[in-house]
Each structure stands twice: as structure tokens, then as C-alpha cells.
Amino acid sequence: MTRAASGTPPTRPGAQTATASVAESLAQVILGEMAPGQSLPSEGDLATRFEVSRLTVREAIKMLAGRGLLDVGRGRRAIVIEPSGIAFSDFLFTLIQNDPKGLFDLIELRMSIEVQSAMPAARRVTRAGLAALENAMSGMREATAQFNAGGANAGEALLRFHQFDVAFHEAIALSSGNRMISYMFEAMASPLRRSFNLSRRGHEERGGSLDDTLAAHVAVMDAIRSGDPKAAGAAMRAHLEETERDIQKALNAGPRDSLSN
Predict the structure, then answer these.
(1) CATH architecture of residue range(s) 15-80
(2) One fold for both 15-80 and 86-253?
(3) Which CATH superfamily is domain 86-253 in?
(4) Residue 254 has what pLDDT?
């Protein structure tokens, strides 16, 4: 039975290509000419501009909404929103979930981004930035104490430790004053939470503890507080190199629960 006979309309040649082409052109307009909160022109105006049908424009808008560039609501024009790192985050998570090498690719990415973010964070240190770092450190300290005490709440304490750990690194990215670094870290945040248990297990198998991890973060924060970019970059690099060794140890020990818990 042919597609036409089955009641499914045949795909028009070039239809998908036209939609993708309009989506790409419209994305360039959004990113280069429009600000978050602005509404797109009407579908009719866009169809005239790109010399396509309104249906093609509508499908292109849906594509861009899926990419996190537009907010589409019933009965109103699409609105430009602040780009998010959702798509890149999904890619990173899939990569580290299915390929152990992806974990080391993530570490290399972190090395490039986080060492560079720690240095300007130290140069541009502000009260608000320090307050965010200190809040994350306070949470990590409390979680460490609860984890070390053992008992039924140890697992919950470890989860909170990881959450404050991500918040600590995110505060540094924001303090760098570089919007691209902040965007990249936003995309990495979810994959980081997924990988922390693996690095923690490797750290324990190497004879380490949460107290060691806490101390590494203290060294980074102290360098930023003192306004020493070189020391901040060096402390962050040392922390990430230790994390890389922890992950290698965990992978060598076997696949036990890897990223799932």
C-alpha cells in the first residue's frame, strides 16, 4: 500500500528543507536583532519576508521554541526568551551516560571554563559574589558534618552536598562577569550532578573524604576573596585534576552504580 493510499499525505519535496532554512534564518534574526521579551512579527509578515507559506513559518517557530529561543502561547505572537543551555545540557548528559570517555571530555571542558572563570571572579570580586560563595560553602559544611555522622540521613546529606557544590561553581561562573561562561556552566550543571557520585566513589576508593573536597573548595574561595586571580586559577585547576583522578579510579574499579545514583 502506498502512502497516499493509506491516507497519509506524501511529503512534499523540499518542505522539510524550507522549514529548517526559515528556522535558521529566523534564529539569526532573533539572536542578532531582537532582545528577550520582544514579540516576533506576525506569521503573515514573516511569510512575506522569507517568501514561504504561513504553515512553513509556523513549523519553523515550533522548531525554535523547541530550541529554547521562543515562548509560544495560544492566541498571541511568539516571544523571544533568554537562550538556555537545555539542548547542550541534554547532549552532555547523553554523552557521559553512554560513553566513559565523555566524562573526561567534560572534565576538559570544565578545566577550560572554570579555571578561566575563577580568575576574573577574583579580579571582579563583589559582596554579592562572595555572599553566594559563602552560602554554598556553608551548605557544603553542614552536609559534610551530617554525612560524617552517618545514619539514615547520610544519603540525603550527600545529595545536598552535591547540590551546594554545583551552586558554588555556578556562583563563580556568575562572578566572572562573562555571560558566555555563565551560559556554558548552566548547560553543564545537570551533567555535573549526575557525575558527582562517580567522582565521590573514586575519591573514597583513593582514601579521600568529603572533608578533602570541602578543603579544595575553601582554597578556591579564599583565593577569590583575597582578589588573587593566579591563586584562584591554580586552586581550581588542582581541584579539577583531583576530580579527574577520582573518576579514573572509579572507572577502573568497575561500573557499580556509575552515574545512576
Answers:
(1) Orthogonal Bundle (1.10)
(2) no
(3) GntR ligand-binding domain-like (1.20.120.530)
(4) 67
Cβ count within 10 A of residue 121: 32
As a whole number of angstroms, the distance between CA 136 and CA 144 comes to 12
Give pLDDT, residue 255. Answer: 57
SS (HEC) of the chain: CCCCCCCCCCCCCCHHHHHHHHHHHHHHHHHHHCCCCCECCCHHHHHHHHCCCHHHHHHHHHHHHHCCCEECCCCCCCEECCCCCHHHHHHHHHHHHHCHHHHHHHHHHHHHHHHHHHHHHHHCCCHHHHHHHHHHHHHHHHHHHHHHHCCCCHHHHHHHHHHHHHHHHHHHHHHCCCHHHHHHHHHHHHHHHHHHHHHHHHHHHCCCCHHHHHHHHHHHHHHHHCCCHHHHHHHHHHHHHHHHHHHHHHHHHCCCCCCCC
Averages of pLDDT over each 10 residues, the chain, 261 residues: 41 62 89 88 93 93 86 88 70 74 85 93 93 96 94 90 93 89 80 82 92 96 96 96 92 61 40
Return the half-sphere exposure (C-beta side, CA atoms, 13 A cut-off) of residue 229.
9
Q: Which sequence spans correspond to the domains of the chain?
A: 15-80, 86-253
Q: How would you write 108-161 as a 3-class SS string?
A: HHHHHHHHHHHHHHHHCCCHHHHHHHHHHHHHHHHHHHHHHHCCCCHHHHHHHH
Rounded Cα gap, residues 198 and 255, in angstroms: 9
